[in-house]
Amino acid sequence: MSGARRSALATLRGQIERIETAEAVHHRDRVALGHREADSALQGGLARAAIHEVFCTGPQGTAATGFVTGLAGRVTARRPLLWVRQDFSDMEAGALSMSGLAELGLDPRRVVMVRAADVETALRTSADALACDALGAVVLELWGETRQFDLVASRKLTLAAQASGVTGVLLRMAAQPLPSTAETRWMLRAAPSPPGPVWNAWGAPRFDAELLRNRHGPCGRWIMEWKCDECLFSEPSAHPQPVAAAPAYRPDQAVPWQRRAG
């Protein structure tokens, strides 16, 4: 084996070792999502300085976008968020609503939107952004299957995130999961929202979130409710509205009425 090949192999082994031995660093720097069971599976919360993947089918794009907004909002620590989108995503899913992000608790003044003409540009922009430690998080949104995002591209994003401490969230709509170096991988579906109060027709956003991959813990599937005021996830509320107490004189069980024989 030539010296150049040995050097390249040693460099590659070192990069892989950095990825696979980052458990201790990730364990020290995690942010709780607020959902008790999900945080327990994640060993305390979502790891910063790592890459997380969120997948969904095309019709579930709105729900997945809301979930990604919640994840990114939890890890930004009040620093700017860079959101990279393909032009094709705008055509398929529509433009992001800044008022919608604000309703989910993410300050639009801290969000920088970047539109990329193609996948290569989106990946290059995201890698450069992940290397900038002034950011809190980078969201990369890709639509459909793409051969450009392979294991090598995933490794580049992971190494950039680990070096800078910036968290990356990949939103993959209408795509199938492939091998990657992501810390976690989620599959998102919309869940029915609870009934809201009389003066508000909309209930709290709920997500059917399935954790397909967890590098340092078990997987699972939960209904996660987003608390817009607190900006965190929680277990679904059993009674979203005040419930009147049952009258004390009411029997525990109604006695069935029987027709009197004629």
Radius of gyration: 23 Å
What value does the average pLDDT take?
86
Strand content: 15-25%
Element-by-element helix/strand order: HHEHEEHEHHEHEHEEEEE
Count of beta strands: 11
Ends apart, CA distance between termini: 103 Å
* Class of secondary structure makeup: alpha/beta
Any low-confidence stretches, pLDDT <50, length ≥5? 22-27, 242-252
Give the count of helical stretches: 8
Biggest sheet, open or closed, and with what strands and sense? 9 strands, mixed
Q: Tell the overall outline.
A: globular
Strand order of the largest sheet: 5-4-6-7-3-8-9-10-11
Helix content: 25-40%
Structure characterization notes:
The protein is α/β, with parallel strands linked by helices. It contains 8 helices and 11 strands. The strands form 2 sheets. A 9-stranded mixed β-sheet has the order 5-4-6-7-3-8-9-10-11, with helices on both faces. Strands 1-2 form a two-stranded antiparallel sheet. The model is unreliable at 22-27 and 242-252 (pLDDT under 50).
Compact overview of the structure:
With 262 residues, the chain is α/β, with parallel strands linked by helices. It has helices at 3-20, 23-28, 36-41, 61-75, 87-93, 98-103, 119-130, 151-164, and strands at residues 30-31, 46-47, 51-56, 81-86, 111-116, 137-143, 167-173, 184-191, 206-214, 220-227, 232-234.
Would you spell out the secondary-structure blueprint of this structure?
Elements lengths: L2 H18 L2 H6 L1 E2 L4 H6 L4 E2 L3 E6 L4 H15 L5 E6 H7 L4 H6 L7 E6 L2 H12 L6 E7 L7 H14 L2 E7 L10 E8 L14 E9 L5 E8 L4 E3 L28
Parallel strand pairs: 3-7, 3-8, 4-5, 4-6, 6-7
Antiparallel strand pairs: 1-2, 8-9, 9-10, 10-11
Helix pairs in contact: 7-8
